[in-house]
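Teaching note: in complex prediction, the entire set of molecules is handled at once rather than each chain in isolation. The prompt given to students was simply: 'Predict the structure of this complex.' The entities are:
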Amino acid sequence: MTENGPVIEIRGLTKNYGDVVGIKDLDLNIHRGEIMGFLGPNGAGKTTTIRTCLDLLQKTSGEVRIFGLDSHHDSIEIRRRIGYLPGDFGMYNDLPVRTILRYLLSLSGYEDDGPMEELARRFALDLDKRYGSLSKGNRQKAGIVQAFMAGQELIIMDEPTAGLDPLMQQEFYEFLREERAEGKTIFMSSHILAEVEEVCDRVAIIRDAELQVVERIDALKEKMGKTLEIEFDKEIDPSVFDIRGVEGLEVDGRRARMIIACDLDQVVKRVSEHNIVNMSLETFSLDQFFMTYYSRPGGG
Amino acid sequence: MLIELRTNWKVLLTFLAVVSFLVAGMVAAWPSMGTAFQADALKGEENVSVELEDLGDTVKVHLQWSPVEGADNYTLLAYPQPQMLVPERAEGIDTESAEHLLEKDEGGTPQMYFAVVALVDGERQLVGMASSLERTSVYEETFGVNMSRVEGMASFMWDLFWGLLMMLFLGYVAASTVSRDFEERKMDIILSKPVSRRRYLLEKFAFLTAYTALMLLVAGLVLVGSMAAIGELSEGMVAPLLMSSLLAFPVVLLIMAVGTLAAVYVQDGRTAVGLVFLFVLLQVGINLVASMAEGLEHLSSYTAMGYWDLDAILFDNVYSVGDFVLIAAAALAVLAVAVLVFERRDMAG
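The expected output is the structure of the full assembly:
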């Protein structure tokens, strides 16, 4: 048991469905006490990765270790210590939510339903209602409660905020931050970039079954650069911007627009020889980055 | 296991009630149907008596009839079917008795019908009819069961009626209880808890097994109780009637194991139920063919149902513990395969 090593350690993980590649040669470490976002478009392999880690799918090759244990052979021991919220799940429609959650709690070998009641109160979930009568948002809350109610140290979630209203989403993010502060590790997939930007420490981006990048959110933001837009008093020669680190240059008469991935000072000094009418600098949001990233062939 | 009860109790309790109601209902209706299951009486059969004398390859039939007043003589007619009798001898018989020689066939004494006709004042008049063998009803000829007897009634009920209903229902429950967890997307959550797939499957099966045992016991007790209520229960019949129900246990167990295997393999309710129904109907079909077609009786021994030998239990009060264990072992073997398949397959997500 490597208590100081990564909580989840994925090495060369490949999962094929017959001839179809689900995920290919994926490497990823998730550390204790961090919230790792797992970002990618639909069908990229996020759910496949998560379900393979949980031993719901048999891996084709590679290795997954959770708490230093083998994801397949030590699966029961691992599942004792993790909470999981699937992306698409159901429960017993005819039973009250409280009955279902107590049953699931008992499967985890837990007796204390105090945390369950507390979580339900926090997320305004009525435990006396039959699961089948709940709205999509309330079903999602029931899923969230069952993932956290046994106080496990690692929580894996597949698109956890699907169906939650914006206020509840904020409440959920706040809750995640508190959980992190208590030392919990969280691995969550999402296709909502703002969510990852707001709550995650690091992000892994997957596309077409392959992991593209794993980066700290703040480092990523830095790397992402800024958009600089300048208006001159007359037409400008594009060669002015022939500077290392200036990308995606668009010159339209007196206006120039570019992405700055270098020191801003260099650019400002160069353009100072010309008369500037207007200038705006905008930091890239992860959202924009994501769009740029995915629109580039080969992932940039 | 408790969760199964909580989610399924309505369906399971309803079926238990339906089974009890059907068994009691059939028994209650049986006396009024009794005559329908008896062989039609031959015309005037009380006037003609038959005695058989075994002569080795042949059988001599001694016929004797009550005299008819004013009869000049009698004519004896004989034919293997009662609808079409032909004169046995052209000349009249002066006495009130006659003999007829029958050649034995594979089954021993053949069925032969006789009619005695008297000639009274130049007119022919039927004295009575008789048969070389005891007559069987249409039901008995078709299904080989004498429905006018308690045992026959019980056997008929099991064989052709709700024995099938019960097997289909429990096969359905077994296949759908597992596949519903896939279809309703519960499997991911359940299996994310520290529950091995083996434990999951065995707990489900244990629940089904307990329910089956309860259902068969209730069905057997209702059968015995309702027979007693209509005053048709003799003391010797209690055990055979109860056993006729309980001996279905391993057969149903096997069907449920097949349903479980189908469910974990295809992970889809409709297909799994279809497969288990096919299994049950194949068994029933083969047994039906085996019971009706001559020379194909051995086919039934290839099916599990063939070991649920109702006639032996009901008519002779004998049953094979070996067969009981054999089918139960087969059920457990299929269940073991289901566990192995379940442990190795991707869970449909």
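Point out the following to students. Residues 226-283 of chain A form a domain with the Alpha-Beta Plaits fold (CATH 3.30.70.2470). Chain A has a mean pLDDT of 90.
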